[in-house]
Amino acid sequence: MTRHDDNTRLRHMLDHAEEAVAMASGKRRDDLDNNRLLELALTRLAEVVGEAAARVSRGEQAHHPQIPWPEIAGLRNRLVHGYDAVDLDILWEIVQVDFPHLISVLRRDLDTV
């Protein structure tokens, strides 16, 4: 994989995390229980973040040690393979807490690339 491909994957992570955070903005946790489209959209966006993370080369991952690579890739696997048991509390926390931090790190790192 080339550095360009890695940058594309990092950009996908950033774009999809930003979209998830924007989509959840102004919403409450219980909106996930009452809005199937919101639930599906946030789940899918989180899946893409995880898939893109899994495709970033090990060498590039080493340049971003503050990103929890295994956890993000594992998120995708849990969402896809555990599609029938998605814990919406965890999904909400990821979108509200983890993604804003990830966005901050990726914005900073991508500005220096």
Secondary structure topology:
Layout: H1 3-24, H2 29-34, H3 36-55, H4 58-62, H5 69-81, H6 88-111
Question: What does it look like?
Answer:
The chain is an all-alpha fold and 113 residues long. It has one domain (3-111). It has six helices and no strands. Helix 3 crosses helix 5 (69-81). It starts with a helix and ends with a helix. The relative contact order is 0.19.
Number of helices: 6
Shape: globular
**Strand portion, in percent?**
under 5%
Q: Provide the helix percentage.
A: over 70%
Structural domains: how many: 1
Structural class designation: mainly alpha
* SSE series: HHHHHH
End-to-end CA span: 16 Å
CA-atom Rg in angstroms: 14 Å
Number of strands: 0
Largest sheet properties? none
The average pLDDT value, as a whole number, equals 93
Low-confidence stretches: none
Descriptive tags:
6 helices; 80% helix
What does this entry show, briefly?
The protein has helices spanning 3-24, 29-34, 36-55, 58-62, 69-81, 88-111. It has 113 residues and is mainly alpha-helical. Helix 1 runs antiparallel to helix 3.
